[in-house]
Write a structure and sequence with these properties.
With 139 residues, the chain is α/β, with parallel strands linked by helices. 44% of the residues lie in helices and 19% in strands. The protein has helices at 13-24, 32-39, 54-68, 85-94, 119-122, 127-138, and strands at residues 27-28, 44-50, 75-80, 104-109, 112-117.
């Protein structure tokens, strides 16, 4: 079950958050099958676990957007915690060694976990600090 929380202008926050991540360059994965198809590929993959919390909108999404503008040869995906539950659970199964965290960025190469920028590293940080952490993990 999903829920919608509406912004005063009438658009729901979930749609706004999803659109923000997609416009930044993250491809939405909404089913378990889409997640498996995307994360079983070779190469460098980053998965942004999106949410509607303040640190997602104020820090994580801006950091992801800035990072994507400076990187190449990466496949960037997003799942939405609390909304696309099956897709999120399937993605988290790939994030071995890390507890569920949203927002977060998981970095994989050829299907293997390299590292993660977890919520505890996002909350209270600046978008620039998170962008730097992503750059370090993907270099």
């Amino acid at each position: 079950m999903t829920f919608n929380i509406f912004h005063p202008d009438g658009e729901d926050y979930v749609s706004m958050a999803r659109k923000d991540a997609e416009e930044a360059g993250f491809e939405s994965l909404r089913t378990a099958e889409e997640v498996k198809g995307a994360l079983d590929q070779s190469g460098l993959i980053v998965v942004f676990v999106n949410s509607i919390c303040g640190c997602a909108g104020g820090i994580a999404r801006p950091a992801g957007k800035a990072w994507l503008q400076t990187t190449r040869d990466v496949k960037a995906y997003t799942v939405f915690a609390g909304q696309d539950k099956e897709a999120t659970e399937t993605a988290r199964a790939y994030f071995t060694g890390y507890p569920p965290s949203s927002p977060s960025f998981a970095v994989l190469r050829d299907g293997e976990m390299i590292g993660m920028v977890e919520r505890l590293e996002i909350e209270g940080a600046s978008p620039e600090e998170v962008t730097k952490k992503l750059t370090q993990l993907t270099s």
